[in-house]
Specification:
Elements (H helix, E strand, L loop, with lengths): L15 E5 L6 E5 L4 E3 L6 E3 L14 H5 L4 H23 L3 H21 L4 H10 L4 H8 L4 H18 L4 H12 L10 H21 L4 H11 L3 H11 L4
Antiparallel strand pairs: 1-2, 3-4
């Protein structure tokens, strides 16, 4: 059975079109279901500029549906996954905008820390950042508590079901669930992926606490110096909390 989006009987005018070759600028004819075409003028192979590969970033049947995925998409597949994880996180928390906002800030800070450190896998880091508190609603239901140990206990099964639904690789799911499972409790040796999420969460939590009960700059500096796991996390915390640019 073909995906309706790829079946020619459902095609509309414009399903066959010309695209400009990014190398030589000559016109290349595309059918809407072509993933790539080789330019007959210069031989350059490029991705269909009008094809929506969004579903291929998470669908486990993508390769059967649209054929062999172009290498450019395969390289982006895990990167695209993080966007789907963000959507699923928002869908799960529904109108709990406080948790959605917190997870989104943690993801934003974690990405900056990871890039500044120059290490880590952003697919793992951002997926874990979006899902790190995903167990908090179950913790509230079962234990009437948001204590870290309950969040860490309830989070991994929910994170796993979301990642499996999106067709993520098993090793990626395992690492994300492992981070969710102990995101408040670092082990003696930690990965760059864990450190980025941990420091980002610490910044977001300190930011929230500081708004409710302002802490003086000296005490904030002491916490930053003592508690963070990366130099980039400390620098980013000072920028956010102490306005150090």
């Amino acid at each position: 059975m073909k995906c309706p989006g790829q079946d020619t009987m459902y095609w509309k005018p414009g399903a066959i079109f010309d695209a400009k070759c990014p190398e030589c600028g000559k016109k290349v004819e595309f059918f809407k279901d072509d993933t790539t075409r080789k330019c007959p003028h210069c031989g350059h192979k490029f991705i269909n500029p009008e094809m929506d590969f969004g579903c291929a970033s998470y669908c486990q049947f993508a390769e059967q549906c649209i054929g062999n995925l172009p290498p450019e998409l395969l390289a982006q597949k895990e990167d695209l996954l993080k966007d789907r994880v963000a959507i699923e996180m928002k869908r799960y928390f529904r109108t709990d905008f406080k948790r959605i906002g917190h997870a989104t800030r943690v993801a934003r800070y974690a990405e900056k820390i990871s890039k500044a450190e120059g290490q880590g896998n952003l697919a793992v880091i951002l997926s874990a950042a979006y899902l790190h508190d995903i167990g908090i609603h179950e913790a509230e239901k079962k234990y009437n508590s948001t204590a870290p140990k309950y969040q860490e206990q309830e989070g991994p099964p929910i994170a796993r079901s979301i990642m499996e639904k999106l067709g993520a690789k098993e090793e990626l799911i395992e690492e994300v669930c492992d981070i969710v499972e102990h995101h408040h409790h670092p082990r003696p040796e930690e990965t760059a992926n864990f450190k980025a999420v941990y420091d980002a969460d610490l910044i977001a939590n300190m930011e929230d606490n500081h708004k409710d009960k302002p802490i003086n700059a000296e005490k904030l500096e002491g916490i930053i110096t003592k508690s963070f796991m990366t130099d980039s996390g400390k620098a980013h915390a000072r920028k956010i909390l102490l306005n150090n640019n």
